[in-house]
Design goal:
Helix content: 40-55%
CATH topology of the largest domain: Glycerol-3-phosphate (1)-acyltransferase
Strand order of the largest sheet: 1-7-6-2-5-3-4
Distance between the termini: 45 Å
Shape: globular
Number of strands: 7
Structural class: alpha/beta
CATH class of the largest domain: Alpha Beta
Strand content: 5-15%
Number of helices: 16
Number of domains: 2
Oligomer: single chain
Length: about 375
């Protein structure tokens, strides 16, 4: 399989490419400004010289990326907790398929957590729609990211999907390096997390067996990500109204940049990750049933969703939102008046940030309540409650 594909257009940079890429990157004024912000106590000249001495991807990740992400974690959250570590064997590669909360930080927090545990870091799937400048592309490829091409004509999209599928299979099953990929293209703006069947069909393209065999070869491990607060909640609510009022509305590159910046810099509260473990045994069970491939794809997507939903961390915000949205007191015994008032005040502060010509506060508030209640709703359904 690997002999039939040239992965150069999408793969991360290799160690022998790192120095030359960094030398060019350090000519970018925008990047130098970001580095000065990340490392304010280090004179920029000294920082540039230190970066020019880096020769490997691992050095770059440890000295730049991990330092940056640890700083973000300490400044904008109450900490990241990794649960379920006993469910995986760190010596064996997995394909981590997760729900998607933050454009940049979902995979970043995963890898910093793995680093602290002494686990190998993953490669990261990133959509090319976010790679607005060449220096951003170079930066993410230095951080073991590979490129998912979006918005191509149909024939090119098919070829691109085959290449992507082959790369992921090669990385996991041949190179024994884990991969992180979101369960769907883009974030679920209402936090109603669902695995796209198209993702599973793409992954199947590069296999040489039947669907079940092909999925087992990838060692799929569903990953659950729970943020107490989503700093982009008001931007997502704003987009919901913009799409409601104008069905042809499309986000601009500036919108994407604002979402990335807000997600990185905004307060996130507590963050928890749960490793659900390899689901090969569950996938094998699909072969014991009289199912055609389309139904197998559908059932595997539902299985991944259930694993993700069962292990959400439920915060007071989720329970309060559920009760406010449904007009019930189902969870009133699990939060207090102060927590409820504080969250309602938070919602209003976020709504106040939204600037629209025909701002619909009732609609915007409802959308934000949906974002915070959907994880709880889906967890209840998964638990059969």
């Amino acid at each position: 399989m690997e002999q039939n594909y040239n992965f150069d257009e999408i793969r991360p940079y290799r160690d022998n490419e790192v120095h030359a890429v960094l030398v060019e990157l350090l000519k970018e004024p925008q990047l130098l400004g970001i580095l000065a912000h990340i490392f304010p106590e280090t004179p920029i000249d000294l920082l540039v010289e230190r970066l020019k001495s880096i020769r490997t991807v691992e050095e770059f990740q440890q000295e730049v990326i991990l330092s940056f992400v640890n700083g973000i974690e300490s400044k904008t959250s109450e900490g990241v907790t990794m649960l379920g570590t006993g469910n995986i064997n760190p010596a064996k590669a997995n394909l981590f398929i997760s729900n998607h909360r933050d454009i940049v930080l979902d995979a970043a927090f995963l890898n910093t957590s793995f680093f602290k545990l002494g686990f190998p870091l993953t490669e990261i799937a990133i959509g090319d729609n976010l790679l607005i400048f060449k220096w951003i592309t170079d930066l993410v490829k230095l951080n073991r990211s590979f490129i998912v091409r979006r918005n191509l004509p149909a024939r090119q999209m098919l070829e691109s999907s085959r290449l992507l599928s082959a790369y992921i299979r090669y990385t996991v099953s041949r190179s024994n390096r884990s991969v992180w990929i979101a369960q769907r293209e883009g974030r679920a703006k209402d936090s109603n997390d669902r695995t796209q069947e198209a993702l599973l069909k793409m992954l199947d393209m590069s296999g040489e067996g039947n669907f079940v065999d092909n999925m087992q070869e990838l060692a799929i491990c569903p990953l659950t990500i729970s943020y107490e607060y989503d700093p982009c909640d008001y931007l997502k609510a704003k987009e919901f109204q913009q799409r409601r009022d104008n069905p042809d509305y499309k986000k601009s590159q500036q919108d994407d940049l604002l979402n990335m910046k807000t997600g990185i810099e905004g307060y996130k509260g507590r963050i928890e990750y749960f490793l659900n473990g390899n689901i090969d045994a569950d996938i094998a069970a699909l072969n014991t049933q009289d199912l055609d491939k389309a139904e197998q794809v559908k059932q595997l997507a539902a299985l991944i969703d259930k694993k993700i939903h069962l292990n959400y961390t439920v915060y007071a915000n989720n329970r309060i939102s559920y009760d406010l949205l449904t007009g019930s007191n189902r969870f009133a015994g699990e939060y207090n008046v102060e927590e409820k008032l504080a969250f309602e005040a938070y919602l209003q502060r976020q709504i106040d940030k939204i600037v629209l010509p025909d701002k619909d506060e009732v609609f915007l508030r409802t959308k934000m309540l949906e974002m915070y209640s959907n994880p709880l709703k889906n967890k209840l359904i998964a638990e059969g409650k």
